[in-house]
Amino acid sequence: MANAWKRDKNQKLLSPKTLISLLVLSIIFLSSLFFFFSSSSLQYSNPNLSIHTSFSIPPFDCFKCPQSKPIIANVVENLQYPFIYSLADLGNLPEKPHKNIVRLLKGKPFRKPDISATIQEVLEKMRSNGKNGLVVDVGANIGMASFAAAAMGFKVVAFEPVFENLQRICDGIWFNRVADLVTVFEAAASDRNGDITVHKLVGRLDNSAISEVGARLAFKSNKEIAIQVKSIPLDKLIPPSQPVLLIKIDVQGWEYHVLKGAKMLLSRKPAEAPYLIYEEDERLLKASNTSSKEIRDFLNTLGYNKCSQHGTDAHCTKE
């Protein structure tokens, strides 16, 4: 027992510069949290929300999930409905940290994610037209689309198969106080029930793709780890009576399979059909043996005859 307190000779201590940086980062983060939760302009409730959901599989339990570490989180800049999210990609510490860590050390909020701004813009227009319903986030990553919707008071169902991302989503659920709004499933949405292989990249375990080639294309890596995750079609999880406002899909080339698994949901009449946002990257689609034309043709058979391109994302609606 006397030797239990002896320091390991090979243990590397953090430099004073790194310790000071971490201390400053902690102070700024706590200050950001205080400002975020004390601001009277931030509202996380929707008095008109009356959605009741029951699901065929149990959701991911954040209370039983091991805590992610380290936690580096901050509020997002320049959004009408701001929220906090926790970084999964920290960069190469301490030499080359993620750009948002550098911003945090300078006292700045995290940079606004494009998908967050897009989600809020679309939902704001829908709400102004008196529409209400569920938001479905397929390929939720660390929750930047989910929390953008929840910050407006909308209920969200999110799908994310990567455990490291689920941990960060759980961080965000706590930071944003949206446990009553965000339900997350440790699963990959697809066109069949069962198990499916997902490829996680070495060095970027927070990202994944169904296609091994697609994973390498998306994240510029030559090494990956194959894991088995549950897969489920959206039609098997979301009941026909459940109003759905918007579906966002970002699954690195597996979009066509997700859409096929939501055929009934997408077949709803125009007034009830969800607004659709999905990634349409031809390289990644090809790696999954499909194409943007195949997706557009499929959607057209379901009545989605109005699609527009926004960067690598397609936005589709029914007229």
From TrEMBL:
This is Methyltransferase FkbM domain-containing protein. Residues 137-304 form the Methyltransferase FkbM domain. It comes from the Eukaryota. InterPro entries: FkbM_mtfrase (IPR006342), SAM-dependent_MTase (IPR052514), SAM-dependent_MTases_sf (IPR029063). The chain crosses the membrane at residues 20-38. Keywords: Membrane, Transmembrane, Transmembrane helix. Pfam families: Methyltransf_21. Coiled coil: none annotated.
